[in-house]
């Protein structure tokens, strides 16, 4: 009986030692995983900030280009409106001349 107890006691000690070793390994693995997570999060944060900065620069360039095109379009539109007004005036003038001409021809007949 005493021998059985000692054998069970030795088995228990072996199991305790195995559990302690596994616990230490798990703690080491968790610590390593946490360090990897922190390193990866810092890297991703840096990459995201760089991408965000680049995106902001690109948006600034696009806004500037849009403003220039908008100004150019506005200028051309104003020129075309002036030209259209001049051409409308010419058309009205020519129409009134034609009407007067026709009235003159009718009175001659």
**How many beta strands in the DSSP annotation?**
0
Please outline the major beta sheet: none
Number of spatially distinct domains: 1
The helix fraction, in percent, is: over 70%
Task: Look at the helices and sheets and give the structural class.
Answer: mainly alpha
- Assembly state here? single chain
Question: What would you call the shape?
Answer: rod-shaped
Distance between the termini: 151 Å
Q: Show unreliable segments.
A: none
> What Rg do the Cα atoms give?
46 Å
**Roughly what fraction of the amino acids lie in strands?**
under 5%
* Count of DSSP-assigned helices: 1
- Topology order in helix (H) and strand (E) letters: H
What is the averaged pLDDT score? 92
Sum up the structure in keywords.
single chain; about 110 residues; mainly alpha; about 100% helix
Walk me through this protein's architecture.
- This protein has one domain.
- Helices cover 98% and strands 0% of the residues.
- 0% of the residues are buried.
Annotate the secondary structure layout.
Elements: H1 2-108
């Amino acid at each position: 009986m005493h021998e059985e107890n000692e054998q069970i006691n030795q088995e228990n000690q072996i199991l305790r030692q195995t559990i302690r070793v596994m616990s230490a390994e798990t703690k080491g693995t968790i610590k390593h995983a946490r360090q990897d997570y922190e390193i990866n999060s810092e890297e991703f944060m840096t990459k995201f900030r760089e991408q965000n900065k680049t995106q902001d620069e690109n948006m600034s360039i696009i806004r500037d280009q849009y403003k220039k095109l908008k100004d150019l379009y506005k200028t051309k539109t104003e020129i075309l409106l002036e030209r259209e007004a001049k051409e409308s005036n010419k058309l009205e003038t020519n129409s009134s001349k034609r009407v007067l001409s026709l009235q003159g021809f009718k009175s001659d007949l």
